[in-house]
Design brief:
- This protein is α+β, with helices and mostly antiparallel strands and 276 residues long.
- The chain contains 4 helices and 14 strands.
- The protein has a 9-stranded antiparallel beta sheet. A 3-stranded antiparallel beta sheet has the order 11-10-13, with no helix packed on it.
- Strand 4 and strand 5 form a beta hairpin.
């Protein structure tokens, strides 16, 4: 079975409920996957579980950071961690690395990423390996505190959209600070397969259309913004998370890296940065 080629008109498999900006009316930057992953169950069952855990997780991270010996009952500082650069300590909460979000040489001082699945080796952190199941493993935090999330992924994501999953991580900003405008990489012959979710309506996510990177994107660049809860985009395009007006925080999203099943792998090509 193959997905029909994506168009700007809704059909039973492709839903572009995005808000175009700029001058391009036929942009294909965000692939809306709400209908493919039972988004209503995500919003009503899974997202509340994720949001309910955020406060205590951030508290644990802050307690570890300020602890004289870098340890608490639920977390500890790990030297030479596998997620961070060599020699950089990282905080683990029930086996899950929690690190300040960093990309393209910039580091946020308000946003943390929590790795619910951890790499089994340093090589897993390369962009080409983040979706390889054999190179990632579940953490105690994931299996112990996110039962609904795990059941949801097993039921609606694995075997449907993704044939296997590698990294699972969620990003939390307890403030309302705009995220870093960035690209993930510029590997021309490789685009990452994943499903991205937002946990509430506090977070806006924008993908820009110009074939330029990061801060080089002009303010009037054509773009698309997330309207639903689940989507894919080519992370080689410039993108940015920002709080919506009136957002109180926390601002939370989750990304599941993996390998698309054949029909989704074929359909994503219309959205790729260097699509032919």
């Amino acid at each position: 079975e193959q997905l029909a080629p994506p168009t700007t008109r809704d059909n039973e498999l492709i839903h572009l409920r995005t808000l175009p900006a700029g001058t391009m009316s036929d942009l294909k930057l965000i692939w809306d996957l709400d209908a493919d992953v039972a988004a209503e169950e995500w919003r009503t069952v899974v997202a509340p579980e994720l949001l309910g855990a955020v406060g205590s997780l951030l508290d644990t991270v802050n307690e570890v950071r300020t602890s004289p010996d870098g340890r608490t009952d639920n977390g500890q500082t790990v030297l030479n961690g596998i997620v961070t650069e060599e020699g950089t300590p990282e905080i683990h909460v029930q086996g899950a690395a929690a690190k300040l979000f960093e990309t393209t040489g910039k580091t946020s001082d308000t946003t943390y990423g929590f790795y619910l699945r951890m790499p089994t080796c340093k090589e897993a952190m390369s962009h080409q390996n983040r979706g390889i199941q054999a190179m990632w493993q579940d953490t105690e935090l994931y299996t112990d505190r996110f039962e609904k999330l795990k059941a949801y992924i097993d039921k609606y994501v694995v075997g449907n959209v993704l044939s296997e999953i590698g990294r699972i991580w969620f990003i939390v900003d307890a403030t309302t600070t705009p995220g870093i405008k960035h690209i993930d990489h510029e590997i021309r012959d490789f685009s990452n397969d994943f499903v991205w979710f937002r946990a509430n309506r506090e977070k806006q996510f924008t993908v820009f259309g110009d074939d330029v990177a990061g801060d080089a994107v002009a303010e009037d660049t054509a773009c698309q913004r997330v309207d639903g809860s689940a989507m894919w985009f080519d992370s080689r395009r410039t993108h940015q998370a920002t709080p919506l007006p009136g957002a109180q925080g926390p601002i939370v999203s989750l990304r599941i890296d993996g390998i698309f099943t054949p029909k989704y792998a074929q359909a994503k090509t219309a959205y790729e940065r260097w699509a032919t």
